[in-house]
Amino acid sequence: MTPILSNNYYVNFKEDAYTKLNKYISDYKPSTIFILVDENTGNDCLPLLLEQIETEQTIEIIEIESGEENKNLDTCSGVWNALTELGADRKSLLLNLGGGVITDLGGFVASTYKRGISFINIPTTLLSMVDASVGGKTGVDLGVLKNQIGLFSDPEMVIIDSHYLETVSKRELRSGLAEIIKYGITYDAKIWDEINNFQDLSIPNLSSLIHRSIEIKNEVVTQDPKEAGIRKVLNFGHTLGHAIESYFLESEDKENLTHGEAIAIGMITESYISEILLGFPSEGLKNIKKSIINIFGKVLIESSDYEAIIELLIHDKKNVAGQVNFVLLTNFENYKLDCKVEKSLIIEALNYYNS
Ligand code: NAD
Prior knowledge:
Dehydroquinate synthase-like, alpha domain, 2 domains, binds nicotinamide-adenine-dinucleotide, alpha/beta
């Protein structure tokens, strides 16, 4: 698969990626190679990576606990301390092997340790491959505030190897698929057609979709690195989706949704709003609802939940000057940024999802 050039680094695929990694290591000659993992990627992914690295350099493994709840400054301190104790200097290299938590946190740790050491990201979940692999965002959460602390910083390269997905649960794979669907609806209807004819979530089925999704995300983020304009298209489905995700997370009597499950609901409801406000074709809307519910199933959102979801929407940190801004669609591949939506229409959209 053709490598993808991002800002000033490449996203490399499969076997070719390891050849490039080994070349990078032999050219750069890092003093030590550190590999950051969590307990899952340490078990499931590290053996495959170690098999591929050809070097005489010392390799040290640093393990953190998995989970978004550990994506914080305490964990960073632990990794900075481990690097210090293991003698990491400015010529050290950090390989971040894991999902978006590891690549976001590892990128941040590397970019700030001794004012910055080189790092390479090896995303191992579908979500981190198609969403977190380009765009340069690194960082951690501060309490409940997601990604509150961080900086834009690019890796030396990104390695995409779909073999890592073999140990990812079907539910986590579906979560990543929601982002691929988003690219299909907003940017490349061929992806959307492919997903409509999708038989199952097998890895061979996913490989070309992963490549195309990274290409799209890369096209968007390189045009608008700091999210001043077009990059906002990546928020389609995420405005209501995030509020729904947070609501389920905060409600003791509800089972948490994955990010993708919440974004799936966001894409249906925001497509409905698009039909009403911007004339998005009603056949397209029906098709979006049917296909997405086919893949993700239907989540029960009671009308008694609406008020709290809308409250969370209003307080979302992406709002500017208290305004909720939606990305809406005039058609597939055609969107309009910064749309304002009345509360009554949001309620109608949630009713449409439930209908
Ligand atoms: P995650 O990193 O928490 O991984 C999910 C779970 O899967 C974890 O338990 C992990 O240990 C496990 N896992 C990872 N790879 C595995 C494998 N190959 N086999 C078995 N288990 C494996 O979550 P995620 O969904 O990958 O990423 C979510 C994070 O990514 C969030 O923190 C989000 O903010 C961030 N993110 C960042 C960007 C960006 O542009 N930087 C974009 C999207 C999301």
